[in-house]
Amino acid sequence: MNNTMIDYETRVRRNRMRRNRELRIHIAMLTAAAGIILSISVFALSSVPSDASNDNGPRVYKYYTSVAVLPSDTVESLAKKSACSLGEMPSASDEIRLAGEIRSINHLEEDELPLAGTNLVVPYYSYEFR
Known about the structure:
Blueprint: H1 3-46, E1 61-68, H2 75-83, H3 92-105, E2 119-126
Antiparallel strand pairs: 1-2
């Protein structure tokens, strides 16, 4: 064999080794990219908030309305009316919580009474989505 034939075979062998090395690198990069995409997909799908609950009861929606204050109204009486908007008897803690929320929304102090004739923003609840 002459010298040129050996050079040709050496070049062919080196090119084949280079292509194999590049192929292994491409396979490794593809595997890594697939792993990253899979990881991101699993993380994204597992962090989607679910609206499912164990309670199969009706859904209650909270709304706000403006109420004209009568001379006999107190924050507590408005809270009681608001808590009864679903037609159920509210608990004392519901009334206290709503009274605090009415005071907070309307910037009233704890001992401050609403003035008759003014309007207050009061939350109410409904089974209807509006």
